[in-house]
Amino acid sequence: MKLTSALLALLSLLTTALALPQASPPYPGTTPAPWPTLNRTTPYFNLVTSVRNISPTNFGFTNLYLHAYHSGAGLNDAVLLADRTRAARGFLNGTYAVFNLGGPFSYGMRTGYVPYGSWGPAYLNAGTGERGFAISDGRFVRVDGNFGGWMGIVCDWWRNVPQLFMR
């Protein structure tokens, strides 16, 4: 079997590309920042909703578990579903809330800012997320002064399932 000249040229380019040296750091004398070391400071947990003042209109929003709704490369909206078996399993790394979504990366909790709004969405994005979370009296809370509680059971927002929002 004879190789055509175009195929030989392509193979030549591929071997050349594989032989190129690795890219250097962005600035001479520096090394890329290492992936942060994760140190679990709490037992693993699952976040589950508990509705205050249950009524006929909000009864279906109790016992929902935190899940990730894929919205882009390494990006997920925090949603609430009844499926406990595939729920996001988390732990605290200091005050970072880190979740295992079944892949090779860790996913950290982040909260979104909505200008002039009184609530913003929660996300589970690749990485360690943002600091400022704790478990207090069995509740998952933000420890900064701007936390007004969680609301995820009020409406099905962008994803047509209940989403987690911070007040």
TrEMBL record:
Is Signal among the key words of this record? yes
Q: Which domain of life is it from?
A: Eukaryota
Which keywords describe this protein according to UniProt?
Signal
User: What Pfam families does this protein map onto?
Assistant: DUF7907 (PF25484)
Annotated InterPro entries: DUF7907 (IPR057229)
The answer to keyword Signal applying to this record is yes
Mind telling me what this protein is named? DUF7907 domain-containing protein
Q: Where is the DUF7907 domain?
A: 43-167
User: From which residue to which does the signal peptide run?
Assistant: 1-19
